[in-house]
């Protein structure tokens, strides 16, 4: 599957295969393919009822990836070779068998024992097909072997493992029977229609039902029974919206048109405002975005930020220039684009029923970009008909996920090879012109289009500076955050990277963006308040009644540690309502231990220590070795004075995750506080060795060594850390202080000057410099 599978799972990401939690003990081999759990729901009519009046749309949909997103496993729907082949990749082995109309996969199960697992449903169709197994507790788990459904000429018609680089064994959350692969919570909503997840938190089981397998008409248009009644009845005008829950058609008569007096050659919308534009994008967004659901089983037509919290341009998932990196689907890149801000919607380029492009090649772009201006060698500077002459080659680079699935970036960005090189991202030019440098590509572009570009200076440099924690990043990020010409997802990302403790630039940006017109920006600004003391968070009170659920949820989160009597009396009922929305948003993923860790932290902030402890216990019941649960439980126990319980939790974390640095680091700190210096130093050293890219670990180890009187060793550790991380401010300051204490004033001054070079306003470094000058002046003159 993905190279970043473990990171995606840790984030609770909504990826196609990376699913959610499972209790291993409950997984048992099923003897036969179960019956489908299809059930009627009030208000739903089914796709078949639409075809009578909408035959062309139904015909286009019938062969689409949407219609075939999931199906009962039958000889008609199963594409893979189940004639008995055995396949191995060196880590995993499986045999694919058929028993009449039943399809079986022989592989290792939840307890490591090899057994035959009957396929209950197919999952997807092109360019690969996966297969699900239903277990008695209601969980559906996607098998890790997928069928490459591409033609043989393209390398297809073969079995392959989705994570061949990982030697996955039972008990691993990413093993196909593990909690990070449970279809019901991660995948089901986007592969069925009318889903009811049916999770029973008390029993940790599922009774998942749907009205239709696959993405049917009502997945996008909403429940259709009222519309069918309208169509069959006589008084058609009496039902608002013709009985449809979601209005996806403008009905305005407008169109994209070229204007003769516009030298740009870019079409503009001619007609009334596209009232349905936002609805169209937000109808697609829940399944074409990496996002965390904040309500259970949302229906089509609900505002996206009322139902989901989308992933921002997170490091590891997006390059610093916004290009897709992890399996983030399309919405996050499209939300960055000028097209989205101009009012372009998914259906302008894609037929919504077949899913295919409305035209082939450059013709789809020519709908809005005049071919005489853009589809020429004067614009693309490549031979006509060559791959380089295709709009998508330069403006929609592709990345491959799940081994064979190439997906295009939808930001429609301009090629900036020099910016990509500056932030360590791939660029479209050298991806094709292999052996050439980014500098060469930048020179060619400058020759063609001039040295200045419309997006100078590029915002990627500020995003990378924020990710690296560089001095001055706060001002650059604040500029992006408050620039309303920039897309909301970029501005929200800039806010999320603002450093805490807040500088003047940080505080000004957060204050301005709290009142922003974009709800995603407001919500992120509220999350940034968590870096402030509770008494400084009362600005969040006014957002408890915001019209957007995500904003209200983040307002309640920001106010979690604020005593109720510190809030205006008039705001207390609104806080109570928003608080319940916040807890409910976390309970949407009650299957996941991480959800209970979040709930525990919220309850602890409100002073509900009993509720917090119970939530931590629930998290550990879901997964006894969960790293986040154990480390946070340890901090919780330490804060309430239970040092033994805190140490016990950290020792469990170290035992369960021997290759993770964080629990060893936390245990080292805990042992140091308890005076167990020898083991504490060993743990801190182990943490630093496991994470050489993290400068804080050796810095803290050096401080501990110095406090215990091992000054020479502390100095050596800091010097090595600075050699590896020359801009780590705290290490520079610590070493400067130690050199001062050893009367090595010249070296201390050099180090203090290095800190001042990083940040000329660093008061602590300036004070140290002044002190060192005074000490040097008091030294006796050499004879």
How would you explain this protein's 3D organization?
Pfam families: Cytochrome_C554, Paired_CXXCH_1, TPR_19. It comes from Neoroseomonas marina. TPR repeats lie at residues 593-626. The chain is of the alpha+beta class. Among the domains are: 16-219, no CATH class; 262-414, no CATH class. It has 35 helices and 20 strands. Strands 1, 6, 7, 8, 9 and 10 form a six-stranded antiparallel beta sheet that branches. The protein has a four-stranded antiparallel beta sheet with strand order 2-3-4-5, with no helix packed on it. Helix 15 (417-423) runs antiparallel to helix 17 (438-449). Residues 1-36 have low confidence and may be disordered.
Mean pLDDT score: 90
As a percent range, the share of helical residues equals 40-55%
| Rg measurement, Å | 29 Å
Largest sheet: 6 strands, antiparallel
How far do the termini sit from each other? 73 Å
Low-confidence stretches: 1-36
* Strand content range: 5-15%
Total helices: the number is 35
Assign the structural class, choosing from mainly alpha, mainly beta, alpha/beta, alpha+beta, or little secondary structure: alpha+beta
Q: What's the count of strands?
A: 20
Molecular shape: globular
What's the SSE blueprint?
Blueprint: H1 5-10, H2 48-51, H3 55-62, E1 70-72, E2 86-88, E3 93-99, E4 102-108, E5 114-118, E6 121-123, E7 128-134, E8 140-142, E9 145-148, E10 158-161, H4 183-186, E11 192-193, E12 199-200, E13 205-206, E14 212-213, H5 217-221, H6 225-232, E15 255-257, E16 268-270, H7 277-284, E17 291-293, H8 304-307, E18 308-310, H9 331-334, H10 338-342, H11 346-349, H12 371-374, H13 377-380, H14 391-395, E19 398-401, E20 405-408, H15 417-423, H16 428-432, H17 438-449, H18 460-468, H19 473-481, H20 488-496, H21 504-513, H22 519-528, H23 549-558, H24 572-587, H25 593-605, H26 609-622, H27 627-639, H28 643-656, H29 661-673, H30 677-690, H31 696-707, H32 711-724, H33 729-741, H34 745-758, H35 763-777
Antiparallel strand pairs: 1-6, 2-3, 3-4, 4-5, 6-7, 7-8, 7-9, 9-10, 11-14, 12-13, 15-16, 17-18, 19-20
Helix pairs in contact: 15-17, 18-19, 19-20, 19-21, 20-22, 22-23, 23-24, 25-26, 25-27, 26-27, 27-28, 28-29, 29-30, 30-31, 31-32, 31-33, 32-33, 33-34, 34-35
């Amino acid at each position: 599957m993905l190279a970043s599978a473990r990171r995606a799972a840790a984030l609770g990401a909504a990826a196609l295969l990376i699913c959610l939690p499972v209790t291993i003990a409950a997984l048992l081999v099923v003897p036969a393919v179960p019956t489908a759990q299809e059930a009627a729901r009030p208000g739903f009519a089914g796709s078949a009822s639409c075809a009578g009046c909408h035959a062309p749309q139904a015909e286009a949909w019938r062969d689409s990836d949407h219609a075939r997103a999931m199906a009962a496993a039958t000889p008609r729907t199963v594409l893979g070779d189940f004639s008995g082949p055995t396949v191995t990749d060196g880590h995993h082995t499986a045999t694919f068998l058929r028993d009449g109309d039943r399809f079986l996969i022989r592989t290792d199960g939840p307890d490591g024992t090899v057994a035959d697992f009957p396929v209950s449903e197919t999952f997807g169709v092109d360019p690969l097909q996966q297969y699900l197994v239903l277990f008695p507790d209601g969980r559906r788990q996607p098998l890790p072997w997928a069928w490459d459904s591409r033609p043989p000429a393209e390398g297809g018609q073969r079995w392959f493992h989705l994570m061949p680089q990982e030697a996955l064994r039972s008990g691993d959350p990413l093993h196909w029977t593990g909690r990070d692969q449970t279809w019901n919570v991660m995948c089901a909503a986007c592969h069925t229609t009318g889903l009811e997840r049916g999770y029973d938190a008390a029993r940790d089981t599922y009774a998942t039902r749907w009205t239709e397998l696959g993405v049917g008409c009502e997945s996008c248009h909403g429940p259709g029974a009222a519309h069918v009644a309208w169509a069959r009845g006589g008084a058609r005008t009496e039902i608002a919206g013709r009985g449809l829950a979601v209005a996806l058609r403008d009905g305005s008569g407008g169109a994209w048109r070229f204007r003769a007096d516009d030298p740009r050659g870019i079409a503009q919308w001619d007609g009334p405002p596209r009232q349905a534009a936002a609805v169209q994008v937000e109808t697609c967004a829940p399944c074409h975005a990496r996002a965390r659901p904040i309500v259970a089983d949302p229906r089509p037509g609900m505002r996206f930020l009322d139902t989901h919290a989308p992933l921002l341009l997170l490091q590891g998932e997006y390059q610093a220039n916004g290009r897709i990196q992890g399996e983030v689907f399309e919405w996050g890149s499209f939300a960055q684009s000028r097209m989205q801000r101009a009012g372009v919607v998914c259906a302008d380029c894609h037929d919504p029923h077949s899913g295919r492009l409305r035209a082939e090649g450059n013709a789809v772009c020519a709908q809005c970009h005049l071919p005489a201006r853009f589809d020429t060698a004067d614009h693309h500077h490549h031979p006509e008909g060559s791959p380089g002459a295709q709009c998508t080659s330069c403006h929609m680079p592709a990345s491959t996920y799940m081994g064979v699935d190439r997906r295009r970036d939808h930001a429609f960005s301009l090629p900036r090879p020099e910016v990509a090189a500056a932030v360590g991202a791939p660029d479209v030019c050298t991806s094709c012109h292999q052996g050439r440098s980014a500098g060469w590509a930048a020179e060619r572009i400058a020759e063609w289009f001039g040295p200045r570009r419309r997006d100078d200076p590029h915002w990627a440099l500020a995003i990378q500076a924020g990710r690296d924690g560089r001095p001055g990043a706060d001002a650059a990020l604040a500029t992006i955050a408050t620039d309303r010409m920039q897309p909301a997802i970029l501005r929200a990302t800039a806010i999320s990277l603002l450093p805490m403790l807040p500088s003047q630039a940080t505080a000004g940006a957060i204050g301005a963006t709290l009142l922003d017109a974009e709800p995603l920006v407001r919500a992120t600004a509220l999350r940034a308040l968590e870096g402030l003391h509770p008494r400084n968070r009362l600005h969040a009170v006014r957002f408890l009644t915001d019209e957007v659920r995500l904003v209200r949820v983040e307002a309640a989160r920001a106010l979690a540690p604020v005593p109720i009597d510190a809030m205006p009396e008039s705001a207390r009922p609104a806080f109570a309502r928003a608080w319940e929305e916040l807890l409910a948003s976390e309970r949407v993923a009650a299957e996941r231990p991480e959800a209970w860790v979040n709930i525990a932290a919220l309850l602890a902030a409100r002073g509900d220590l009993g509720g917090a402890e119970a939530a931590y216990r629930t998290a550990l019941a879901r997964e006894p070795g969960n790293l986040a649960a154990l480390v946070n439980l340890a901090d919780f126990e330490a804060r309430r004075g239970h040092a033994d319980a805190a140490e016990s939790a950290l020792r469990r974390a170290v035992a369960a995750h021997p290759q993770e640095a964080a629990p060893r680091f936390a245990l080292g700190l805990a042992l140091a506080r308890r005076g167990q210096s020898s083991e504490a130093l060993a743990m801190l050293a182990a943490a630093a060795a496991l994470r050489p890219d993290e400068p804080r670990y050796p810095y803290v180890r050096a401080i501990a060594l110095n406090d215990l009187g091992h000054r020479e060793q502390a100095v050596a550790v800091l010097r090595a850390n600075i050699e590896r991380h020359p801009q780590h401010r705290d290490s520079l300051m610590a070493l400067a202080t130690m050199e001062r204490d050893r009367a090595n004033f010249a070296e201390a001054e050099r180090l203090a000057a290095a800190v001042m070079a990083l940040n000329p306003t660093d008061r602590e470094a300036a004070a140290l410099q002044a002190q060192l000058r005074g000490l040097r002046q008091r030294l006796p003159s050499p004879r």
